[in-house]
Amino acid sequence: MKKLFGLIYKNLFLTGRLFTGLGVCALLFLLEFFFPWLGVIPELFFWVLIILLAIDLLMLLKTSKGVFARRITPERLSNSDENELSIYIENRYAFNINVSIIDEIPVQFQKRDVWFETALKPNERKQINYMLRPTRRGEYEFGWIRVFVKSALGLIERRYNFEQTEILAVYPSFLQMRKYELMAISNRLTDIGIKKIRRIGHSLEFEQVKNYVAGDDYRTINWKATARQGNLMVNSFVDEKAQHVYCIIDKSRAMKMPFEGMSLLDYAINASLVLSNVALLKEDKAGLITVAEKIGAVVPSDSKYTQLNKILEVLYKEKTDFLETNLEALYVTARRVIKQRSLIVFFTNYESLSALQRQLPFLKRIAKFHLLLVVFFENTELRALSEQPASNVEGIYIKTIAEKFAYDKKLMVKELASHGIQSILTTPQNLTINTVNRYLEIKAKQKL
């Protein structure tokens, strides 16, 4: 009895339809004072409402397990991507019901409107899909699933609580990585903005001698093989393989700047994961180094199939520090770990020319031994300010300062180029495409 009372007290709720009926009933009793001819109509209406309420209550309480619901989630979530989740709902009542579902999603999303409504026939099953886009890596805790059930009468609502607390890890954008992977395998990278790079000459790595087909370059004809076979034969070349590609990620305070809900560090991590995957698909060796005031993770370059998982697990745990980057420690580590000439892609950010000049001596030393590519970010907010027309003196001042900072970014590119260091100045949303573009260009032009 006590358990039943607790159930009624905690999990039964009055609906708007019942309050409407009670309001009509009160109005009829009020009108009876002025219109005696209404007679027993108010009392009859009241008792009919009470009987319907009792029937509705019995219908909802006659079984303890009238509905079943559970959340269907992937093993892990992909940062900055739309991840699909589902709620499976099953009606075990013998009549039609209307259900409202609340899914208690993690607090990181700051959303309280994950509410779904649907109707179910007897023994019907449904799956409701919805999307979540995390913007931070880490652990996300999901809570309970609350299901509110109404019968066709709709006078009262019963709540079912399904405890399904679970913790999902949000990893760097592996969905984006897979998209680029499929494009690279099918040679369709141009569909997502990757440029086709015209090759100058041939790669140095010879593959085979094959029969000539229409369209082959006549300059590759192997005349000795042609004389032996009696048919035109051509030499086939492939891209050089097993070259070393290192992504170095700056974790200092400069990378904590937010853009569309994500920090610059997260954009750099997503781009590093994609670039490492593309490099492995090109049969190069991918490695990773993270740095702030101290050296963080170091993953030596390798081309094994487990290498990408190692990089993914390392990137999942990285966080932004609040001190300045120690380029001296990075140079020492690069000299110790990276033994062969390699492509080093350094993801960082400079907001002033003086910040670049402080680090330039160490960048020049690294560039003596490796092909260094510095990737830093364009401040889109400042660009938007510089493009806005000024309407007063304060607006002119703000516009001038914004244009100065934007111009400093262009000076940084020229400063790096004057010392033989390649660079990419890009917006955060175009970071991955521009980085992969430059990697493919370096491969095509045999600069490494």
Strand order within the widest sheet? 18-17-14-19-20-21
| Domain module tally | 4
Which ranges are low-confidence, i.e. pLDDT below 50, for 5 or more consecutive residues? Answer: 195-203
CATH architecture type of the largest domain: 3-Layer(aba) Sandwich
- The CATH superfamily of the largest domain is identified as von Willebrand factor, type A domain
Structural class: alpha/beta
In total, the number of strands is 21
- 3D shape: elongated
Give me the CATH fold name of the largest domain: Rossmann fold
Instruction: Give the CA-CA distance, first to last residue.
Output: 80 Å
Helix coverage percent:
25-40%
Number of helices: 12
Which value, in Å, is the CA radius of gyration? 33 Å
Classified by CATH, the class of the largest domain is Alpha Beta
Average pLDDT taken over every residue: 86
Largest sheet: 6 strands, mixed
> Which percent band covers the strand fraction?
25-35%
